[in-house]
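Q: Hi! First time doing this. I have a protein sequence and I read that you can turn it into a structure. Is that right? Here it is:
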Amino acid sequence: MGFVARFGLIALGILIAFGNKLYEELTVTPRVPNNIEFYENWGPEGSDPYGDSLDLVPFNISISQDVIERLREQLYEGSSSAEGLEQTALQYGFDSKRLQEIVQYWRSDYLDHWDEREAYLNKFEHFKTKIQGLDIHFIRDKSKTVVNPKRIVPLLLLHGWPGSVREFYDIIPLLSNRTSDKEYVFDVIVPSFPGYGWSEGTSRPGLSASKVAVIMKNLMARLGYKRFYVQGGDWGAIIANLMAVLFEKDILGVHLNMCMGSGSPVTVAKMIGSHLAPGYFIDQQHVDFYRPIWARIAELVLQGGYMHLQATKPDLIGTALESNPVGLAAYILGKIATWTDPSYQEVKDGGLEKYYSIDALLDNVMIYYLTNSITTSQRLYTETFDATELARQYEYIPTNAPAACAKFRHEIFHYPNWILREHFTNLMQSNHYEEGGHFAAMQLPEVLYKDIVQFVNQLYVR
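A: Yes, that's right. Below is the predicted 3D structure, encoded as structure tokens:
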């Protein structure tokens, strides 16, 4: 069979599959399951899923000097790397020369003052509590001067990968303190997802994003909140969205800085249509947030190798990065650079210090290193993109929870509001920002803070 004939058969097969999926979407509406398992046990085999302690145990980050010195040795051992190619920056990975400079700073100035960094990481109150068999770590920052409970608004902040609770250190005090732009203060709860940071990872498969959403709901119930606001980016946005779907009546509002449509055939067709004729579908002043679509898709493919690997063989790349702090830093910092602004691939230093301090970036890397959580964090991709999980089609279920979207210029992908409203049927706010990327809370904390407050001010009742 000739090439043309083979290609024609493949194309025909794709069209038939697409048509079947389109027909299924138009005729079958997924529904929220009525049998959500709130006590599903993710702890060690044989443990009691109903035996969780209700205690909130204060937790303090405390790393022995032996661990720090061992890290210093590893940084010396792994300091050499292949020379980067001429006339390249981050196109092949993180620039080796800049990486060596960061590693040198890490093993000297940064580790020499680790007591200061440790104290900084402990600046907020940390806790652990047992939920569904797992130790779940979280930060809580709540005003001690506000006594009227009506003036305290619960807010769950959810991080992503390769981020951590460290993403929120600059925005937490803005939210929890009294300010002139709001009549309330937030009770800010910032958990580490299971398998991230100081939260325990499961020993069995199946802990997908929707299951993490249940754990986060149980955490808020443990803290005494049936209803609350939730905010997130990256995985935090996905899990916040799932919470708005699964627990619609309990979510006072969902605020995202990575808003996505359903990804269904209908949505894809509409996306293509809106990009071909943007003037009919998108405000003229924001057209360039969404176009050119093919260049954006090409960029997603170019940068998406990590996702395929982590969604299929997370332990493989995890093994390469565990006990390998230099490789870990290169992997994480490369993602932060390119997701802050894709043009930073063309810059030797990745443009990192335009918005972030090296200390802040290393704090985040240290959390992965010290907790040995790079492998367990990546398993969230595998579990969420598993066929069983995808078959639940949660992303096709609309939610009427009040919603807001902060669209930063260099976010990985943007959906026009008219498409978002098919999923977020009560989309109350959608702001475009000329600056910023994927890590908004860490990059532009004051901008994100103001966007959150603008949203909550519309809903807050004295």
